[in-house]
Specification:
Largest sheet: 7 strands, parallel
Strand content: 15-25%
Number of strands: 14
CATH superfamily of the largest domain: P-loop containing nucleotide triphosphate hydrolases
Order of helices and strands: HHHEHEHEHEHEHHEHEEHEHEHEEHEHEH
Function: RNA helicase.
Shape: elongated
Distance between the termini: 56 Å
CATH class of the largest domain: Alpha Beta
Protein name: ATP-dependent RNA helicase
Catalytic activity: ATP + H2O = ADP + phosphate + H(+)
InterPro entries: DEAD/DEAH_box_helicase_dom (IPR011545), DEAD/DEAH_RhlB (IPR044742), Helicase_ATP-bd (IPR014001), Helicase_C-like (IPR001650), P-loop_NTPase (IPR027417), RNA-helicase_DEAD-box_CS (IPR000629), RNA_helicase_DEAD_Q_motif (IPR014014)
Enzyme class: hydrolase
Number of helices: 16
CATH architecture of the largest domain: 3-Layer(aba) Sandwich
Strand order of the largest sheet: 3-4-2-5-6-1-7
Radius of gyration: 23 Å
Helix content: 40-55%
Number of domains: 2
Structural class: alpha/beta
Length: about 425
């Protein structure tokens, strides 16, 4: 299949322009089910984001689509609204069997998508279920036997059920959504997705969303789509991060970082802060240290934790008004955590693109603002040039020196903790 940019008809262009200019979901009255509009209103949503306004006219007509949009752009509802509306148009037929599958690269993103779907279906009699690794397989089978019109899943677990779970089939599937397609590929799910596609009906709508549309994503589209898709991109070519984000870097020697973070957490007790570390072990070490010695509200999340613990930490931080979340990049991609005031990159990412995904946790939505700082050692300043190549421009930040007693306290307790950590 040749993936090409499909030129929308003049009427479709007018639809998009109308939605964007009026910027109000109420204008969709009579075009989508009233129960969806009621649910959106209940969620406090009145205006569509740009990506929602761009893709809704095409997805509501059942077209295949590739969408490129930044994290926090509202793409989850951009595909959920037409998925639900198209199933409702089937009437009672839409309630028979699995009609839509949404694939996510991580359990956390799948959980978030499932939560948004649950809110959208509050007054709608369509069934849905979440199928991810880390849960008992027997529990999954029970959900699937009960029937689920919409399944949100990670690729590995879904393929396992498609191949081996009795009475689970998707013969009536109408829509496949590949969310965060670039991350699906980065996570090594190419073979799983290929296996899934082979087991699904060829006649279906396929929707693919990605932060970027590189050649690898286009190859995935060629595999998944039978028709030339509409390609929608709402990326800003001037800057790779949102305009409401104040971001900078701070040159901080290794021996000063613990005391700097200690002071940062103390100063921001009334704020919501995410702190990124380079490894699961580093998250655990700093979490244990600051939980005891900083007496701040701190949570942690990384890939080696149990699914139950990750789920609890994600929900707790999402609902919290303040506090800190220590995490690895498992929490950086696609998750919608509201009202994050500061992103602290304690360890720089290995890839400049990962910087963009990390800071995408703050300054989200319309007219929102946020702050981000990355700590760099004196020998790491070249990283700034790599970011500039990705159209990310940082200010140089200065912070007041922590009091000597703080530096001394952190040094003593750090040495004590690190000795114990190494001895274990």
């Amino acid at each position: 299949m040749h993936v090409a940019l499909q030129s929308p008809s003049e009427s479709h262009k007018m639809d998009v322009d109308e939605i964007v200019s009026k910027s109000c979901f109420s204008m969709l009255e009579g075009k989508i089910d009233s129960k969806i509009l009621k649910a959106l209103k209940g969620m406090g949503l009145e205006k569509p984001t740009r990506i929602q306004a761009e893709v809704l006219p095409h997805l509501l007509q059942g077209k295949d689509l590739i969408g490129a949009a930044k994290t926090g752009s509202g793409k989850t509802l951009a595909f959920l609204i037409p998925v639900v509306d198209n199933l409702l148009k089937l009437g009672t037929l839409g309630k028979l069997g699995t009609r839509c599958i949404i694939l996510s690269p991580t359990r956390e993103l799948a959980l978030q998508t499932s939560d948004v779907l649950k809110k959208l279906l509050v007054n709608i009699h369509l069934s849905h279920c979440l199928i991810v690794g880390g849960e008992k397989r027997a529990k999954d089978i029970l959900k699937l036997k009960k029937g689920a019109n919409i399944i949100v899943s990670t690729p590995g677990r879904l393929l396992d059920h498609l191949q081996s779970t009795e009475n689970f089939n998707c013969n009536k599937l109408q829509c496949l959504v590949l969310d965060e397609a670039d991350k699906l590929l980065e996570a090594g799910f190419q073979k799983h997705i290929t296996g899934i596609i082979k087991l699904l009906p060829k006649k279906r709508q396929t929707v693919l969303f990605s932060a970027t549309i590189g050649e690898n994503v286009k190859n995935l589209a060629r595999l998944a789509m039978r028709n030339d898709p509409v390609i929608i991109s709402v990326s800003d070519n001037k800057m790779s991060t949102v305009s409401g984000l104040q971001q900078g870097y701070y040159i901080c020697p290794v021996e000063k970082r613990m005391s700097w973070l200690y002071k940062m957490l103390k100063k921001s007790k009334k704020l919501k802060v995410m702190v990124f570390f380079s490894s699961c072990r580093s998250v655990d070490f700093h979490y244990e240290f600051f939980k005891v010695h900083c007496k701040a509200s701190i949570l942690s999340i990384h890939g080696q934790q149990s699914q139950a613990r990750r789920k609890e930490a994600f929900h707790s931080f999402t609902e919290a008004q303040n506090g800190a979340l220590f995490c690895t990049d498992v929490a950086a991609r696609g998750l919608d955590i509201p009202s994050v005031d500061w992103i602290v990159q304690y360890d720089p990412p290995s890839d400049p693109k990962e910087y963009i995904h990390r800071v995408g946790r703050t300054a989200r939505g319309l007219n929102n603002r946020g702050n981000a700082v990355i700590l760099l050692r004196p020998e790491e300043t070249e990283f700034i040039k790599f970011l500039e190549k990705e159209k990310v421009y940082l200010d140089k930040y200065t912070f007041g020196k922590p009091p000597d007693e703080v530096q001394e306290m952190v040094s003593i307790r750090f040495n004590y903790r690190i000795d114990g950590f190494i001895t274990q």
